[in-house]
Amino acid sequence: MRAKLVLFLSLLLGCLAVVVNGESVYVSRLFADCYQYEDFILVDDTSKVDELKRVVIISRDGRYREEHGIKHVYDGRAIYLTERLRSDFYSGARIYQDR
Questions:
Q1: Which residue has the higher pLDDT, 70 or 12?
Q2: What is the rounded distance in angstroms from the CA atom of residue 67 to the CA atom of residue 96?
Q3: pLDDT per residue over 40-57, tens digit each?
């Protein structure tokens, strides 16, 4: 059990290291579940999201990672993506952007 936990944590840290080394910063997290083929996502806060930069969405377990452009950021909690999601992301998934 302990070995599985260590393996999981190392995988998670590896995913975060890739994002942080690419000069990306945490900007928000998903407020609600978003499923494959959706292009409209709800987030906790859009105040730090820059409409001119691409977002990186990473699932809670670090298994899935997608990069998407932004068509529009609505005040409050909504982001309209330029393309549809290729995977399911559940509430709590982290969203990063380049600095």
A1: 70
A2: 9
A3: 999 999 999 999 999 999
